[in-house]
Amino acid sequence: MLLRYGLTTVCILSPLIFAGLNLFAPQIVGGYLSQASAELVTYSIGAFRQYSFAYLIVGFNVVIGGFMTALKRPVPANCISIGRGLVLQSASLLTLAALFGSDGLWFTPIISEALCLCLSLFFLRRYRQQFSQ
To answer: Which residues constitute the domain of residue 99?
Structure first.
């Protein structure tokens, strides 16, 4: 039941946060780069918008990782956590940099979170199969 609440909350808030970040990207970036050139600010707004796609997925990984932790399933919980924080981020960063150069770097979070979501869903499905038996 609580997993459903968490996932429902993510389904509602993720698109709202994504839309808000995109809508207010100039103001957010401007707050950090108030002394920067107009060219840098324009580039940063585009990069920020690319980066913000990760917010559509990140909540699912956090909720499922927390769910696995609450169920005392350390292997799936740690795989999700370490995957999000280090392994998948690094692999995505290196791969995208090699393929697309500096422009690909801003898509690292969305790719790594999407890969982590696949991992999270795998663990969740495996748990549900074990639970239903």
So the answer is: 2-132
